[in-house]
Write a structure and sequence with these properties.
369 residues, 8-stranded parallel β-barrel, 14 helices, 41% helix, globular, binds ligand G3I
């Protein structure tokens, strides 16, 4: 499947979806069987979510929801070094293979996350590396992993989260183990290795903390990001897209405005597509009442998507999980009151929440790509 293909509607389920739509016509909109993949595909957009292989394997109802909703599956953890590489000379592809198989079965593509990151590194990897060790590790890993999935993983976050302004460098680059060993060139090297391993895959750099116009460090981070991307483009590095993660905050209003639009336009001017790859809303600081919380979360999803989908370079929207039944927010950002978190479009009973309706509305009103 070429990344240039128009996202396919969920073929086998179209008739069923039509039947369901007719059957549900008498029910309130919130109960309707939304298909986010179909609504997105109608506008030439890809919609998908991050998934874990064990959830797809063990939970048939959840797997069915993923099948109905997702035209893209992103392995949430299965392609990270700590999952893939139990020992220096051993790869374990079982989890990633299962997701790739599931994607094929449901007519979805796979977005690969991620080839190079400073986190989720295996315990056997030394904390500091020499330049030649780092280069050999990157070359071996990228050729093995991107090479194995050549033609089956449509797109990659090649380098994840390379910017960290708090590390104090004028260029804003993060002092990751890869950076410490190889300097800024590890980014271009990684992109070139990925292109060589799979010339058809579309390649991105991904980062977070770029979404809000009213958070000064995010505004500064946009500038560092653009400078890095412009440098890579000037160098002729193989880079097709920028992936804005989209981890949205629950403790402030949805300040997505001219600054974010301008950032996206600047990315487009560099010749890049823009992918939203990890969309969710942090509801940890929100009121306990689930109805109020769901409404606030939905408002944030809607405001963000209305802003970003106005930019034609945005071609893919992935949520970081699909249902509140499985979300890393539950252990990364638990609520102080111990209420379950509700950051995703579908609730823990797999029912669409107002957030799903907000996504649906944003796709319906988006311009066709
Ligand atoms: O798989 C092991 C399991 O075998 C073990 O029993 C269990 C015990 O703690 O740990 C499991 O691994 C955990 C894994 O999530 C799966 O649940 C890791 O400890 C835990 O660190 C890991 O957290 C992930 C985190 O990245 C670090 O890799 C989250 O699920 C994942 O959602 C999060 O995703 C990141 C993106 O990759 C990059 N952007 C930010 C995002 C977090 O919001």
């Amino acid at each position: 499947m070429s990344i240039h293909d128009r996202p396919a509607r969920n073929g086998p389920s179209r008739r069923r979806a039509l039947g369901a739509a007719l059957a549900l016509a008498a029910f309130p909109a919130a109960a309707a069987d939304v298909s986010l993949r179909r609504l997105a595909a109608d506008k030439g957009l890809w919609f998908g979510a991050a998934v874990e292989p064990q959830h797809l394997r063990q939970d048939a109802a959840y797997a069915e929801l993923v099948r109905r909703q997702c035209a893209v599956l992103t392995p949430e953890n299965a392609l990270k070094w700590d999952h893939l590489r139990p020992a220096p000379d051993k790869f374990d592809f079982q989890g990633a293979d299962a997701i790739v198989r599931q994607a094929r079965a449901q007519g979805a593509r796979v977005h690969g996350h991620c080839l190079v990151w400073h986190e989720a590194l295996p315990r056997w990897m030394p904390p500091t590396l020499t330049a030649s060790e780092a280069e050999a590790l990157l070359a071996g890993h990228i050729s093995q992993v991107a090479g194995r999935y050549a033609g089956r993983i449509a797109s990659w976050d090649v380098v994840n989260e390379p910017i960290e302004r708090a590390h104090g460098r004028p260029d804003g680059l993060r002092r990751s183990p890869w950076f410490e060993a190889l300097g800024p060139d590890f980014i271009e090297l990684s992109l070139r290795l990925a292109r060589r391993a799979d010339p058809r895959a579309r390649l991105a750099i991904a980062d977070y903390g770029l979404e809000y116009d009213d958070v000064p460090w995010m505004v500064e981070k946009r500038a560092s990001t653009l400078a890095l991307l412009a440098h890579l483009k000037r160098r002729g590095a193989p880079l097709d897209a920028f992936a804005i993660q989209g981890h949205l905050l629950g403790d402030r209003g949805p300040a997505f405005g001219a600054g974010l639009r301008g950032f996206l336009r600047d990315l487009a001017r560099l010749g890049l597509e823009v992918w939203v790859t990890e969309l969710d809303v942090l509801d940890t600081p929100m009121p306990a009442d689930p109805v109020t919380r769901d409404a606030q979360v939905a408002e944030i999803y809607g405001a963000f998507l209305r802003t970003v989908l106005a930019e034609p370079a945005v071609r893919m929207v992935n949520t970081w999980g699909l249902s509140d039944r499985y979300t890393s927010k539950s252990f990364l950002h638990p609520r102080p009151d111990r209420q379950p978190v509700r950051p995703l479009p579908f609730d823990a009973e797999l029912q669409p929440k107002p957030a799903a309706q907000a996504l649906a509305a944003a796709f319906r009103s988006a311009r066709r790509r």
